[in-house]
Amino acid sequence: MTTVGRALGALPETRHCSAVPGPANLALVVSLRSLEHLDETLGRIVREHPTVAVVDRRVVLQQVKVHGRIVDERGRSVRVIPVDPWATGTAAVLPPGPARPVR
């Protein structure tokens, strides 16, 4: 698992790769250009690592927050929320800022 995890973590598309408990022992978060790129990426992973089985996948079509930045409909940063992994309770709540239109 360590070798595969390091290889997947090194992919240019990878944003996060970590070991997790359970039957799906790796979690991989990638950022892709299109849904077609998803199929290409999954195919490449399975070809290059024959022991890998994709057991689940989730697709996010529009991100509201990217790497600590709140983004608009065009993906442009409109404000920054510093990442604080040690925040607890009310400190972890987002600070007030411009409201996003609800669709």
Please describe the structure with a list of short key phrases separated by commas or semicolons.
103 residues, alpha+beta, 3-stranded antiparallel beta sheet, 2 helices, 21% helix, disordered C terminus
Estimated helix fraction: 10-25%
* Structure classification: alpha+beta
Largest sheet: 3 strands, antiparallel
What separation lies between the terminal Cα atoms? 42 Å
Shape: globular
Classify the beta-strand content into a percent band: 15-25%
Average of pLDDT:
80
Could you give the order of the helices and strands? Answer: HEEHEEE
Describe the strand arrangement of the main beta sheet, using strand numbers.
3-4-5
Low-confidence stretches: 99-103
Count of runs of 4 or more consecutive helical residues: 2
Cα-atom Rg, whole angstroms? 17 Å
Strand element count: 5
Characterization of the model:
With 103 residues, the chain is an alpha+beta fold. Helices cover 21% and strands 19% of the residues. It has two helices and five strands; from the N terminus they run H-E-E-H-E-E-E. It has helices at 2-9, 35-48; strands at residues 14-19, 26-30, 65-66, 69-71, 77-80. The strands form two sheets. Strands 3-4-5 form a three-stranded antiparallel beta sheet, with no helix packed on it. The protein has a two-stranded antiparallel ribbon with strand order 1-2. Strand 1 (14-19) and strand 2 (26-30) form a beta hairpin. The longest helix is centred in the middle third of the chain and has 14 residues, at 35-48. The radius of gyration is 17 Å and the shape is globular. The model is unreliable at 99-103 (pLDDT under 50).
